[in-house]
Amino acid sequence: MAKLNKDILLLTFEELQDDSKSLFSCLMVNRLWCETVIPILWKDPWCYNINYNNKYNLFIIVASYLSDDIKEFLTRQGIHLPSVSYKTLLFDYLSFCRSINVNIINVITSIGSPMAYNQFLLQQEFYSLFIKKIPELKYLDMRSIKHQIFYFPEARFRFESLYELICDASIDSSYFYGLVQLCQHIQRLIIDNVEPKVYNGVATLIKVQKNIKYFEWKDDDGSYRPGLNPYKEILLALEQKTDTINHLKLNLLYNDCTLQKVLSKLHKLKTLIASFWPFNEEQLKMFVYRDLEIFEIDYYELKSASIIIENSGGRIKKILLCSYGLFDYINKFHDDSLMFIRKVYEHCPSIEYLSLTFSPSNEHFTELEKLLKICKNLKSLLIAIYMNDSITEEKLLENGEEVLKILNRSAPANLREIRFLYDYKFSLEILEEFLGKWKGYGLSIFTCKPIYEGDYYIQLINKYKNNGIVKDIRCVPFMDVANIDFKI
Prior knowledge:
Elements: H1 6-15, H2 20-26, H3 31-43, H4 56-63, H5 68-76, E1 99-101, H6 102-109, H7 116-133, E2 139-141, H8 155-159, E3 164-168, H9 173-180, E4 188-193, H10 200-207, E5 214-219, H11 232-239, E6 247-251, H12 258-263, E7 271-273, H13 281-284, E8 294-298, H14 302-310, E9 318-322, H15 333-347, E10 353-358, H16 362-374, E11 380-385, H17 393-410, E12 417-422, H18 428-437, E13 443-447, H19 455-466, E14 470-475, H20 478-482
Parallel strand pairs: 1-2, 2-3, 3-4, 4-5, 5-6, 6-7, 7-8, 8-9, 9-10, 10-11, 11-12, 12-13, 13-14
Helix pairs in contact: 1-3, 2-3, 9-10, 10-11, 14-15, 15-16, 16-17, 17-18, 18-19
InterPro entries: LRR_dom_sf (IPR032675)
Protein name: F-box domain-containing protein
Organism: Rhizophagus clarus
């Protein structure tokens, strides 16, 4: 492996760019590996799972780039700086950097001084360094920003290449107006909203973008104020981007009549994660997304989901159902969940990741088996069985036995992960029978029921782990099971 040339190593390490543990291990192999990994790690040094409160070395590296005059000035203010110069470093680290993360810079500058004013001064100098040294700025997370960094002399040349912006909508509109003059090619815009108001600055920034593909808006649950309707300008700005937006993720606390108008025009969506509770059936039929591949919706909107799926183009690879709200959804749960299963196997033959919720009726189990036989590409399946009548131990065991028998008979060969929620139970004998008949290899099963951590279950699981049938069977927190996107 040490003899691989640098080009092959670079391609390999780029595939590991989200795996910080492996990348940091590669640094220790030899000089060639180290020289190849460093530019990848420093492209976005803030994104790795590191405790930045204790990462003094990161502070040393950035501070070492400060000029002697700046160091002298900051030292007179009582800020503690390292004596190392960037000229003594093994690499010109900042020349590899393509990102700025305001929150993490705030954390590491606190190492220099506990005083707010001193930290402000140090942050200003750090931002000045980044704007001067990095060749181009691709990623900016400016949540909690206090500095007008786009007014630095070199900012125009750095910000014009900005690809992804993460921000907090509560910051002053002047920040967005400042970016409007510099950034017109943002492709990913992600907004955390903690303070409801009129968002003219954000709307203006959206309007000037020439190739925005991904838009995400997340309201903070604590920011709800009855009677407020803050989204109109944002939604109207998105309406002007129907030719470019492919990915839309909306977590909105307020009902806005403009949303229906805008969603009906975004026909090029490949990802849609949103709520549809304000819309009637006729409005939902106007949401036609022939390129849709990823679709996420709340459990209690199964009928809405079925209409969207029916009008899709048969390309959906992932359907996720948010876990909350299920217990409030009783009246038409039987019929809506039955229709949902049918629409999935009728219109999503290429589905790979799927959340299902249904009541344990013979009809539902029959439709589940049809789905498994038709959807041959299924890799990960979440099954949430919910009974709205009295729950008995006998019925829980019956539900678990029936599901496992169906999976044995009809599960596609690609299925490698199954998650179970709510009203089921597997006896030791039924689970062993299921594993003994399983046709595939490397199966992972996740549940939030602690019973499967008992000694007899562990012995059974280890038996099938040893022969390769099982990769993992374990109990994990409810929300980790419910979220298929969460890698356990």
